[in-house]
Every structure is written in C-alpha cells, then in structure tokens.
Batch of 3 targets.
Target 1
Amino acid sequence: MAIPHPRTNRPLSTSAAKDWPFRISSERELDEVLTRPSAQLVRDIQTVRSPLVLLGAGGKMGPSLAVLAARAAREAGSNLEIIAVSRFRDAPRRKWLQDHGVTTVQADLLNASSYRGLPHASDVLYLVGQKFGTTASPTATWTTNTLIPAWSMRRYPQARFVVLSTGNVYPLCTVRGRGAAEHVSPLPIGEYASAALARERIFEWHGEQQSTAGVILRLNYSSELRYGVPAEIASKVWRNEAIPLQNGWFNCIWQRDANEAVLRSLELASNPIAIFNLTGLEKISVRQLAKTMASKMGRRPHFKGRESKTALLSDARRLHQLLKPEKISCSILIDWVTQWVMNGLPSYDKPTHFEVRDGKY
C-alpha cells in the first residue's frame, strides 16, 4: 500500500481521526491513548479468567498491555485482577503499573526457583524474549528463549497461553506479494530468529504433552511514538540522517492495536497451539514513508543503498478476519509521530534495526 503524500501539514479531519486526538503532546497523553480500550475489548475482557498473569511485563509492550487490560476490565465492571511479573529493574515503571491498578510481582524468570512463588492463573500472556545483543551474546538469547518457555508451561499446564513470537522466523519474501502467511514454512536467518523458532517449538511440544491450549502470535514491528520503525525513520528525516533502503518495505502495527489483539486472542487458544501473524495489513515503503514525513517536517530526505527484491513481510489477514479489530491508520500514525519528533518529545532510543537482512542483531 502506498503511503499518502499530503500537500499540506494540516491535521487530519475529525472524520478521519474519529475520537483520536489531532496530535499527542506528552507522554501522559500518549500513555492514555495507548491504554484506551475499544468496545470490542471491553466486551471480550469479560471472558478472561482472574487473575490474568503477564510474564515478562516490564519491557516495551508489557506495561501498556497490563494497564489496557485493567482499564478494559474496569469499564466492563469486571473484578479481573491483572498481575504483571518482571524483574522490574525500572522502579518508576513498576510504580506506574501499581498506580493504574495492576498488581506487580518481582521475579527473575531465569531462576527456576522463582516459579514456585508465582500466583495461580488460568490465563497467561507470555511476553518474554531477547533480541538485541544476540550476536554479542548468543547464549543469553538461547537461554531466555528456551528455558523460560519450558518452565512457564510447566508452571501453568492448565492455563490458556498467548505467546508473543516474531515474524523473523519467516524467510525474506518478495516485495511484490503480501508477505509470508502462516502456512509458509519457517526459515530463520541468524541466531535470534533460530532461537525464536525454538521458543515456539518448546511451547508447541509442551502443549502436546500437557494438552495446554495456546496461541502463538508472530509480531512484526509494534510501534508507538517513542520507538518503532516509523519513529526511527521520522527521527532520521528530522536529523538529516541517511535512511537505509536495503529492506525497502515493512509491516508495522500501532502498539495499542497489537496489545488489544494479544488480549482478544485468548479466545482463539486451542490445542494444538494455533499460530497467527500479528501486524498491520499495509505494506509500507520506507522511501515513500520518509518522503511523506519529510514533506510534513520541511526536510529533504536522504537515503543510502537500494531496495532489495525481498524483505521481512508478513500477511496478517487471517487474524484480522477473525478479530475484525479497530485500528489506527498509517496516516494518523504518520501525523502523530512527525509532530512528536519535531517537538523534541522523548524517545526510547532503541533502534529496531529494520534494515538488517542477515539476522545479526
């Protein structure tokens, strides 16, 4: 899908944006938007069994996912307890969760004895994973992505699981198509992708052995305004830095939309464990996205390299057809992220390395 190339920097009309703001001007506003539940989620959260445990909830997606669930439960009139489990090295993040009604449990999931202290749960969201730093320390990635899944499944054999995985398990696909659908055989490139596939296989094996129901979601590029491919490209445009083109196309999904899909996918849990792609339906051109952002920022984009005939792309139509989710459009995300970057608002400064093609992260 081509990114629209606006002639002006005027904000989106209310008809396009519906109830979403024209711009997001602070982290507080951003967190409110990221944790605002849809009517669909408020309806579906009533089927989730209490407590809902999130393993590995201290990362980029976990905190907003936990608070989104808590807000949905409150709006539904449900007494669902949300329990976020993490090492919680970031004390302010833990306090933010607690202030928003989420129970926190501090635990090192690489320590086998920690599992004895975890609360009982019938529904579990598995968010643990390690990607960046794999090339420098492959043993840490393999350990995180294999031992913790096994121990988690053994701790919760009767639970429904939703497991976050990655589209990196797929081969690079032609940019002329829609990307890899779930029937495409995995062909991981590099140690990170191989360890991610091992994580999936461990969940599948334990599911078979224990009759545990679950869903594996292969996520491609969850994005918000402080990180993600659009934010990264916007920052490069604003700083007049060259944008790499070797992976010339990508998929992404607004983080709130991804988190809603994670929660609503509990209803799709099955045995054998089901697999779905989780990303946006748009296939986005890096070059065109940069040009669109540059026009809004009053900049001229700079590029390096050339587009390849293949890229890491996933076809998520199957999950979208089942959930029929509400979602943020690319045009709204572009407006938000360009304004955010131009206003000098905070960034996590965590590159996605979307340009990597050899699997070395």
Target 2
Amino acid sequence: MNIFYRPKTIIAVLVTVTIFFAMGLSKLEVRNNFDGELPKDDPINQKYEMVKDHFDERAKILIGIETENIFNPATLQKIKDISQAMEEIPFVLPDEIKSLSTLKNVQERSWGLDINNFLDTIPTTDVALKRLQSDVLKNKIILGKFVSEDKKFTVITANLEDGFEGAEVLASVEEVKSQFESPEILHITGAPILVEDVQRGISGDSRRFIPAAILLVFLGFFFSFRRLRGTILPAIMVVMSIVWTMGFMGYTGLPITVVSNALPVIMVAVASSYGIHFMNSYYKYAETADDNQEAVMKTLINIGPPILITGITSALGSASLLIFKITSLKEFGIIGAAGFLFATIICLTLLPAVSFILPLQKSKLNSILNLQSIMDKITLNAIRNRYVVLSIYLLIIPVFAFWALKIQIGDDYTKFFPGSHQGRIAAEEFNDHLNGVRIMDVMIDVSKKGNIKDPNTFNTLSTFQNDILGIPYVGSAYSYIDVVKQMKENFNPTADSESEKPSMTAEEISQYLMLFEMSSEPGDLYTIMDESYERAKLQVFIKSSNPQDHRIVYDEINRKFNEHFSGYQISMALGGDVVNRIALSEYIVKGKVLNIILALLIVLMTCSLLFRSLKKGLFTIIPIVLSLVMIFGCMGMLGIRLGISTSLLTAMIVGIGIDFAVHYLVGFYNARKHHQVDNALSVTSTHIGKAIFFDAASNIAGFSVLSLSGFLPVQHFGWLLAFSMMLIFVNTIIVYPGLFSFKYRQRREVISTLATT
C-alpha cells in the first residue's frame, strides 16, 4: 500500500496512459457488414462460399416504384431515367442494372423475330401501351420478379462492386430517390441498404443517448452521495474507462461493429458499479476516521479485494464470448475483458489517489432519505416470509424457463426498424407486390453425370423446381429452366408452355439457351449457369425476412433434393445471404448455451477460490442464474429475438450480477463474525445493500434513456439492460435474506428482537 502515499505519481501515470489511449481513438475503424463472421470450416459456410466462387455473387440494391399502373408514359420514362441515374451511383456496375429499360423483349411477331429492350421507345398510344403490358405480363422471367401482377409495382436492381462503401452507396441512392419521387412512391432496399440503415441507426442513437445515459448515471451519483466529489470522481473514472477501451480497440485493430457499438453503454454500467462501491465504502469509513488517509486506506483494505475479484471475474465472463464462432462476438469478448480490467485498475488507483490528496469528506446521505430503514424492512420481510419468498421463486422460475425456450433465434433486419421506418416499409412493399426479395441460391452440380442440357436432367430439375414452389414462404423460383421455357414460348407461341416436362432434345435446349444468350446482355446467361454447362443456379425468392422461416425453406429444399436426386451423381450447394444468416443463427444458439455454461463455471470457480468453499461459490451464482432465466424468459414472452447484439446480455448480467453478489456475500460473511444471522443480514443490507441500490438505480435511469430510441435494437437493449439491473438488485436483496435465514433457521434470532434493535 506504500504506493498510495505517492498519489501525484499515480495520477500522472494515469493521465499519461489516458492520453496514449486517446490517441488510439483516431485509429478506430468501422465494420458495418457481417462478411467473415462464420468460421471457414463450417459446412454451411463452405457451400455458401462455393456458390459465390462459381457464380460471383454480388451485393444488390433495389429501387421499387409504386403507382396505380406502371404502364403509363410518365412512369415508364421515369423507370428509364432512374435506371440511367443509377449508373452514376458509386460502386454500381453499370452493365448489371436490371429494369424494364434494360431487359430484352424477345417476341415472335407477324413480320418476324423482334428483339429489343422493353423500353427502347416509350409507348404513348393505347395500342402500344397494351402491347407492352401484354409482353411483360406473359413473360415469366419478369412477372413477379421485376413487375407485380397487379401492375402497380416494378423494381430496378443494381449489382455493386466488391469492397463497396455502404454509407456512400446509401447516400447516393437516397439522392436518386428524392430526385425522382412523386407522384410515384419510391422504395429502396437490399442487404447493403438494410445493413447501412442498421449502422446509421445505432451510431446515431449512440451519439444521442449514450451522453444522456452517462448524465443520468452521474445524477444518480450525486443523489446517492450528495457530494460533488462523490459525483465527479466516479464520472471521471467512467469516461477514462471508455477512452482506454476504445483506444485499445484502435491500437489492436478491433473494429466498431453493430455489436461493439454497445460497449460504451456496458462500460458505463460496469465502471459506475465499481465507483459506487468505492465511494460508498469511503463515506462509511470517513464517518469514524481521524483523517482522510485513514479513510482511504480502510476503504482499499475492505472494498479493494471485492472490486478486484469482481473485475477479474467480469473480465473472464466477457472472455467466455470467445467460445462463440461468430467473429464479432469473439471480438467483443476480447474488448469487454480488456474494458472490465481497465475499469478495475482505474477504480483502484485513480479514486484512492485523488481521495488521498483531497481533505476528509463525509456524506450527506441521511439528509435525502432514510434508506437504511427501507433496506431493513425489505430484509425483515424477506426473513419473516422466507417460505413464501422461496416458494414464489420455485413457482415462477419454471414459467420463465418455459418461455426462455420459446426465444426466436437470429436477426430479422426488417424488424430492426419500427413500423414507420422507411426501410421496414420498403421491405414489406417488396414482399407484398413481388414474389419476395430475400434470395436463397441453389447450385446444382451435374459435372459427374453429364451436363444440364441433358433432357432427363432438365426434366428432373424442372420437377424439383416446381416442388420448391410449394414450400411455405417461397414466392417464386428462377433458373435456366425458366429461360428455356420462356424462349420456347417466344419462338413457338402455340406450344404447350405449361407442360411439366416439355419434350425437348438436348439440341433444342442448347439452341434456346444460345438464343437467350444472343438476345440478352453479355453474361446474363452465366449468372444462372456456368460456361461448361455443368452447374446451374436456381434462385429461390422468399416472401419473409424471418430467420426461422428461412430455416424451414432451407430444410425443405434439402429434403426435396434428396427425394428427387437420390442415387444420382448430382450434388447441391445452397448459398446467398439467407443461408449465411441461417448459419449465424445456429452458432448463436450453440454459442449462447456454451457461453452461459462457461461464464457461470468461471464465476463459480473464481468465487469458490475467493471464499475457499464450493458451497459459498454456488451461493454467488444464484441471483445470476435467476436473473438470466428471467431475462431470457421475458424475451421469449415478448418476441424479442436472440440475435448477435442481444447475445451480449449474458456477459452484462454476469458482470453486474457478480458485482452485486460478491459485495453482498463479503459483507454478510464479515458481519457473521460479530452477529447472529438475522442481524448480520440487517447490517449487510444497511451498508452493502445501499451501495447496490445506488448502483442499480443510477444504471436503470441511464439505460432507460436508450429505450426511448426509435431504433428497435437500441430500445430492446436499453430496457433489457434496465430490467436486468432491477432483477439483479431484487434477486440479490430478497433471495439472500430468505435463503440464509432458511439455511440458518436453527440459529435464527427471534424476529421481534431484530425489530426492536
């Protein structure tokens, strides 16, 4: 402890380190997509990458045009103008823009074969408009994919270059939207748009609400201690902890993601918890200390070990996120562990060093309210009604556990937004008017059997595709099968185009594919088949953004493939953004279960070592387990999804829960040396219980601000954190008195004696 007799040196070192980490803030990078989230050896990911390698999958943006009837000269001209304007959007590949103005119209006319873009010339007469409408509505490649059957909606799509900047793309698309909107309604969507909307929403709300949350936490400090020192010192500690942690991210190259955006909020909670316990203990010893140095040293001796052990345990709990195989969660595990350790170091050095220099100061706590009396009454009632308390928990925990099993897994990006958000409206409009905008790619590999022009293969694939259309949530499907059928209909209008198995030879199939290639844009054919004719890509359009629905489609496609191709030397690989999300959901489930088990084991082992007793270690995790079950049960009841961001709740609950539990138990076991059980519980609640109350109250106020956000993930995260604080506080303050009075009931003092002391 001699080092604390040189407080100015400690402060100088801390300031220097803070400046160093502050310089690292300029090195922070942002990653706003989920590329590379999955492990390379994951079977689903390997097939996902295989499809990408063969068919050069690209990110796509979509602009939807909604009006009463798109087949009018003004709207058709606007389709053409928007298509041209999209060529100027950064990172858009001009040759890969698809709309009525770029798609080919191949028709057999009375005077011969007619091959032109649908909108080479904008029709102005009724006859010309009706002919265009007829050509579009009978084209199965276009209907339901580019134009709605009710003629009220059409879409323009554009592929993006690799390495595109989402923010720049979204800003340019929004400019196009504002330029051409009215009287038609324009909707913009696509994975890059949704991801950027998510990033924009989280970043914007973080800038607005995190300062407000910190302010409310600081106000909580002031109303807790009624002293400027009790407010400013923990506040400085919180800010320094955030600077150190964010600077650490900058220097180590760990990016800011949708997940790590929550870090400042979590650091506010953890760092303020440590600060409250230190200052609460300081003001306790200041009441009887002869001088400031004595108060500081007693505080360090008594509260230092619990803060140190909770800091280490919280860091290890965060590190348990490394068990996830999702990159952003593993990164957060590292960042969180570093942040918790930084907060512990700053708390145990900055606060005593500054307090050592300043004059002795006593709290004005009793001038606010008699919290001691309230905590006494809570403890007394928990002891008196211990059987009722324990019975209630035994009844409600199974209910919460049941609902916890009902949690929906995976992130539904459209549901990230409130109902009035343009991103959500756009996604719903696309699904309502078209056959779905979420795409699952099905790659069929016939390289060991022959090629896709073989009539038997063609017919079997055609039947397979038709069966896929019967899967729930599937809106439509598109492959070279549709191209061949459409070209056959174009060149043979009297042929039975609806035949399930058109009697065509390999030569005829080859000719129709060649005609399509000649009449379309260069490379169009090879987006659905490879040049060797050994692999075909079937695009399945899904009319849902719910990950559970995607899983149903995924499983059904695999089942139907096995039904149709059992015994064939034909293989299948599934790709597309939807498949990537399915794999993420699987890892969230597996990782979450392992993460909870590992985090609890870490807490159990650490606290068992601290208290030198496995039984006492088990007592430590009781309020944590109860809080986890309750939080996940509430998520199941309210339909809040367990996604990448909400997976962090375990680390948060363990980090705060261990803080409450360790401080309470250390106080209780110390009090037991001098008091009977009931009196020891009373003494613990009046001192440690007050600190836990201040901690919980300030954090509930801070996190409640986030629930006012218009962005649903921030809302959910904010109120779940606030609710977690309340649950951890209640479970600690009520369960321990009831449990310990039950455990030590043979030695319990008479309740009336406690009431009169």
Target 3
Amino acid sequence: MDRAELADFLRRRRAALVPRDVGLPEGVRRRTPGLRRDEVASLAGMSTDYYTRLEQSRGPHPSTQIVASMARALRLTDDERDHLYLLSGHAPPPRIGGDSHVGPGLLHLLDKLDDIPACVVSDLGETLAQNRMHVLMVGDQSTVTGFDRFHTWRWFTDPETRTRFNSEDWARMSRKHVSDLRALSAKRGGDVVVAELVGALQSASDEFVELWSEHHVATWTSALKRFIHPEVGEIALLCETLVTQKEDQHLLVYFPQPGTEARERLDLLAVIGTQVLGDGEHLTN
C-alpha cells in the first residue's frame, strides 16, 4: 500500500468533482474546487475522520469494501477504479461482462434511496453498486470475483445464496434466472461472456441444464421477493426495475408493500446493521 500516492489520488479525484456530479446542490461559492471531504465520506458510507486520515497519508489499510465505496463516491472510471485498488494494496476485481462503470444518474438515484434496499446490476446480473440497505440485507457483493459476481451463477452453484430467500420461491426464481438468461443470449447474439457463463452453468448444475432445455424465454421487471435475514427474519419486498437507455444496466429497487411488517423489519435491519468494519471503518450512509 502506497499511502502517499493513495492520498494524492484521492485529493485530486475529489477536487475534480463538482456537487452536481453527485447530485448535491451547488450552495454557496466554495473557496477550493471540488467536493468537501465530509461530502465524499458521506457518499462512501464512512466517517469523515476515517476518510480524512486516508487523504492525509495516515489512514489504516482500507478493506476492499471501503475501496469499492470510495470508487463509487468519487465516480471513478474502470481504469481509475483499478488504480485505486492497486494504490490501496489490493488486486482490482476482474472486469467481466462489459463496462462496469455506473453512470452518475443511476448513482445519484442509488444514493438517494437510503431507507430501502437498492442496487445496480448489469444486464447479465453482475452486481455493480449497492446502497447500504442492500448490503445489510444480502451482504457485500463488491468484493467477489469471476463468475461469482453474477447472481445467476451464485444461485445455481452456491447453496448459501438460496438461504437468503424463502424456500417456497426457489423453483420460481430458478426459472426466472434461466428465462432471463435465455432472452439475453438471443439478444446479444453469440456474446462470448454469455456463452462462457451458460457453458459453466451447464457443467456445474444439473438443475440449470434441465431448465435450460425447456427453452422458456422471458424478462422480468417486477416481482415480490421474500428475503430471509438471519436476524430480522423474512422481509417481503416488491422489486421494481429501472433500465438505462442502452438497456445494459438496471437499477433494482426493493420497497415494502403498504400495511405489511416489511417496513418495520427494514427499520430494524438498519439499526442492527450499523457496525464497525474495522479500525474506524463504518457503514453510515
């Protein structure tokens, strides 16, 4: 980890941003260019003191989760994100499935949704960004690598993934994953990444092979999902999907139905989920 280079890079990227880049009001004229440290810290979900120490070359070794949060807060490109990982002493996550850079519009919406779970995924289901509530509900997905970044892969190969959902919904969700992938495979017309993912799933999961052979095609934009949290219990949420103009990135927003216990359980999740991540790192936004 190169603390001096990391500090310089963070300061320069912060200075390159203006409030409107991250959806903040312009306010009064600023004495220095760029965002304030407390604004970046808030966007990244950490304490201002922790971020300040990083910019002053005296911070601790940031975790990959913190690095991912800073990259999102500073609106870094893929190349800049990789550089930030290297300066922080971590190997950059591999780029799979195309451009993983999330546009400022989607990130602005994601930052505003602070009391309900939301995330940005690629059209292949690769997790690109999560807000704090989504991390608390399903775990941090920013540090996984390879095919594990794709939810469809985790669904068919990692039993732990399914424990996050009501078992009565597993069969329906399996069909949803396969139908969506079928539709995308036809839309992309021989895309290498899609072909590699399908091939890997066929080798790893008999269930996937059976469902794939049925040739169901569908794209799902909304559904009721019943999440299971180990401490809060079941949280039944409606999922709405906002699609970018190029249809390559989706903002998934999960919200409670009126008159249900889901709102209270989300509030409880927010309370019990506040935790120290290690040596001053916090999820606070």
